[in-house]
């Protein structure tokens, strides 16, 4: 981002969902060591594309933004060929029975081009009641130039709970934003930055709405691979 500038601010991301099913505490992950969310059966599992850009195009029907994607996936598949094994216990995937319908919306207008909205609907497909549910958003950002195979090992990140209001003096807004950035903006060999061609921007994630107002936030970061950084 921006388009055509060969800058990466996100390598991949996904959902981690945990809860108590019966007497078992289980977590289903969408990325990293095992992939436990899979597309549902055809045709529901096909990704649907819609757009408001061309009223004459088939994808215009029911479109919300200039680039809609609708994906449906679930954690119900339990096959080591696809899910692998738990790297700590060696056991196969034990599903929670969760289906996720994810709708994403993006616009290219000046006032909306900096964000993408994800609207997610979670359904318990199992007969067991799930208790003490937690929903995690995993992000591996790797902020760097395209084809820079060492630029991803120096990212920084954090969590900002509040910010000074831009419109009302003295008002503190609650924002609860998790952010990531390159630590130095990736200057060139002589230390110069090149505007939008250097990774001087920040990528961030926040929850816009939830079924309840009583949300407990937790931010965690870790280094999953170790490098000698000078």
In short:
By secondary structure, the protein is mostly beta strands. 2% of the residues lie in helices and 38% in strands.
What would you say this structure looks like, in words?
It contains one helix and 13 strands; from the N terminus they run E-E-E-E-E-E-H-E-E-E-E-E-E-E. With 230 residues, it is mainly β. The strands form four sheets. Strands 4, 5, 6, 7 and 8 form a five-stranded antiparallel sheet that branches. The protein is globular and about 55 Å long. It starts with 6 loop residues before the first strand and ends in a 25-residue tail after the last strand. The model has no long low-confidence stretch (mean pLDDT 88).
The N- to C-terminal Cα distance equals: 27 Å
Structural class: mainly beta
Q: What is the number of E strands?
A: 13
Mean of residue pLDDT values: 88
- What sort of overall outline do the alpha carbons produce when their principal axes are compared? globular
Helicity range: under 10%
Name the beta content range: 35-45%
Order of helices and strands: EEEEEEHEEEEEEE
Number of helices: 1
* Cα radius of gyration in angstroms: 20 Å
Largest sheet: 5 strands, antiparallel
Low-confidence stretches: none
